[in-house]
């Protein structure tokens, strides 16, 4: 089944988002990312007054053209540092510090528009093909004035660049399908998704996790080529092989929330050698550096003291002094020209109805292409009227009075059936997660929803309309049909005219809207 053709553009051709990259020297110039006095705190969920410091007053600089890796043990603060620099921290995380681009302070609005962020988890819709996914993301992220022909050429070029052009018609898959992308191909697709906007800064969270050595090397080679185009690339990585480690231009070692080293690979080995930690000749340098700074569970105190000594020694090292000179130079150069961080205000976001079109389009395709979910939903709609009707009739037989729900009147069983269809979240006959499966599934679905709301900057109202539209056909129409032909109701419902049936379906839809709105208000009040 093919995707619908995208709506025609109303703006002239020849426009590209790349022409709006800030800087004094044109769009082809890269940017330097620097930070100082940066601290990250995590608020305790049990008490809002207690904060745990994750990153402790660090500073650093990333130059264009460099592929930089953040290394460290588990819990050292690698991901926290990178998400803070990318302005993509989770709720409950407080960031304090000075983050600059080309020596000028920037805010989250700039970083979210001019940087890409590749997540560790897959946030794809498994029923979509590679080409459909890129088309969807292009229409959600690119300037609305870009012509369709330009978008098509850009997508085809990216597919060829990452080696997925021959796999453009293959469904992404969720792991249980027969013909899906491999783990390495999914990582390359995620990489191509971030390259749609040609970001000046690219952040990647554990890009090689879950891949074999060959797939990891292929992805790192793509990152190296992207950095060589004058882009700033920063990634967190866990236990890289020697072949992968050799591809990084610079590394940042994090230990217990502090910077233990920042510089080139060779400088790192020399620095640790001066501290008394000599790397064996046949040993992986990355494993050696991480193991030296790791906190052993059985000897935490001594390991922390050793890591703190290394961090203190780095503050007086030549590499740190070189980094401080670069930080001062960036601030000095920035005063030579006037640069506005909101220069991207000329960027034209896709209109809300365009986003609604593509969101609903994607939702319908997931519903139509996932028969297992639809089978469960239809079965629920068909079984629920039977259960409600039988329970109501048994209640009538066990009572000494003849209630209104007897065979002489259909109004009795109509009420519980409407209740079960309209308020499943209250009555627990139809669990709430089953209503979301048409658009998202499980933990992966929540990642998709979170990304859509935050990183694609989709309005919550547009997302809600999309969810309602994708499940409207079975939630309301099928529910009303199952009520009409349920036992004890058919003789009475068959005499209703078309006008009454339309009003009944409309009434079901309105009650569903009221239900969703009430649930949203309740959740908002709870949090």
Task: Explain this structure.
- The radius of gyration is 28 Å and the shape is globular.
- The two termini are 41 Å apart.
- With 527 residues, the chain is of the alpha/beta class.
- The chain is 50% helix and 12% strand.
- The protein has 2 domains: 32-129 and 195-334, 3-Layer(aba) Sandwich (Rossmann fold); 352-526, no CATH class.
- It has helices at residues 78-85, 108-114, 130-141, 148-162, 183-194, 213-227, 242-245, 265-274, 285-293, 300-315, 318-334, 352-369, 371-398, 411-422, 424-427, 433-436, 442-454, 460-470, 472-484, 490-493, 498-526; strands spanning 33-43, 51-62, 67-71, 93-101, 104-105, 115-118, 201-205, 232-236, 250-255, 258-263.
- Residues 1-11 have a biased composition (Basic and acidic residues).
- It is found in: Membrane.
**Name given to the CATH homologous superfamily of the largest domain:** P-loop containing nucleotide triphosphate hydrolases
Sequence of strands across the biggest β-sheet: 6-7-8-3-9-10
* Beta-strand fraction estimate: 5-15%
SS field, number of helical segments = 21
Structural class: alpha/beta
Looking at the overall shape, the CATH architecture of the largest domain is 3-Layer(aba) Sandwich
Domain tally: 2
Distance between the first and last residues' Cα: 41 Å
From the alpha-carbon coordinates, what is the Rg to the nearest angstrom?
Answer: 28 Å
And the CATH topology of the largest domain? Rossmann fold
E-strand count: 10
Identify the overall geometry. Answer: globular
The top level CATH class name of the largest domain: Alpha Beta
Oligomer: single chain
Largest sheet: 6 strands, mixed
Low-pLDDT residue spans: 1-27, 397-411, 425-443, 487-495
Estimate the mean pLDDT confidence: 75
Helix content class: 40-55%
């Amino acid at each position: 089944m093919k995707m619908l053709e995208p709506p025609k553009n109303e703006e002239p051709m020849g426009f590209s988002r790349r022409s709006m990259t800030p800087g004094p020297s044109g769009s082809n110039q890269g940017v330097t990312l620097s930070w100082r006095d940066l601290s990250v705190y995590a608020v305790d969920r049990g008490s809002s007054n207690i904060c745990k410091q994750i990153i402790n007053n660090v500073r650093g600089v990333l130059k264009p053209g460099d592929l930089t890796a953040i290394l460290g043990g588990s819990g050292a603060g690698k991901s926290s540092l990178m998400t803070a620099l990318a302005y993509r921290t989770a709720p409950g995380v407080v960031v304090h510090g000075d983050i600059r681009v080309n020596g000028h302070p920037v805010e989250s609005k700039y970083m979210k528009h001019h940087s890409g962020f590749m997540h560790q988890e897959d946030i794809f819709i498994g029923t979509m093909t590679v080409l459909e996914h890129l088309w969807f993301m292009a229409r959600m992220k690119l300037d609305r004035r870009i012509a369709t022909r330009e978008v098509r050429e850009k997508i085809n070029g990216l597919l060829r660049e990452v080696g997925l052009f021959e796999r453009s018609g293959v469904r992404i898959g969720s792991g249980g399908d027969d013909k899906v992308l491999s783990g390495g191909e999914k990582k390359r697709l995620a990489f191509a998704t971030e390259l749609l906007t040609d970001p000046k800064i690219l952040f990647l969270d554990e890009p090689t996790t879950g891949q074999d050595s060959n797939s990891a090397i292929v992805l790192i080679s793509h990152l190296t080529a992207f950095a060589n185009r004058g882009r700033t690339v920063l990634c967190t990585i866990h236990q890289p092989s020697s072949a992968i480690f050799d591809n990084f231009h610079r590394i940042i070692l994090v230990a217990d929330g502090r910077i233990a080293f920042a510089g080139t690979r060779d400088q790192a080995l020399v620095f640790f050698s001066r501290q008394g930690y000599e790397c064996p000749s046949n040993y992986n340098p990355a494993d050696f550096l991480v193991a030296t700074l790791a906190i052993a569970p059985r000897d935490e105190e001594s390991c922390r003291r050793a890591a703190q000594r290394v961090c203190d020694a780095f503050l007086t090292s030549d590499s740190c002094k070189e980094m401080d000179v670069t930080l001062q130079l960036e601030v000095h150069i920035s005063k030579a020209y006037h640069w506005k961080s909101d220069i991207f205000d000329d960027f034209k976001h896709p209109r809300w109805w365009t986003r609604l079109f593509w969101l609903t389009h994607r939702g319908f395709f997931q519903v139509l292409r996932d028969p297992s979910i639809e089978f469960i939903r239809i079965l629920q709609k068909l079984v629920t009227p039977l259960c409600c009707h039988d329970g109501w009739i048994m209640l009538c037989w066990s009572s000494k009075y003849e209630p209104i729900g007897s065979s002489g009147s259909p109004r009795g069983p109509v009420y519980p059936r409407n209740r079960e269809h309209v308020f499943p979240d209250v009555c627990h006959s139809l669990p709430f997660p089953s209503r979301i499966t048409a658009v998202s599934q499980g933990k992966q679905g929540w990642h998709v929803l979170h990304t859509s709301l935050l990183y694609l900057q989709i309005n919550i109202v547009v997302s809600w309309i999309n969810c309602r539209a994708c499940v409207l056909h079975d939630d309301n129409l099928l529910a009303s049909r199952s009520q009409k032909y349920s036992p004890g109701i058919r003789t009475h419902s068959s005499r209703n005219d078309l006008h009454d049936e339309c009003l009944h379906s409309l009434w079901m839809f309105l009650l569903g809207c009221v239900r969703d709105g009430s649930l949203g208000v309740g959740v908002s009040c709870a949090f």
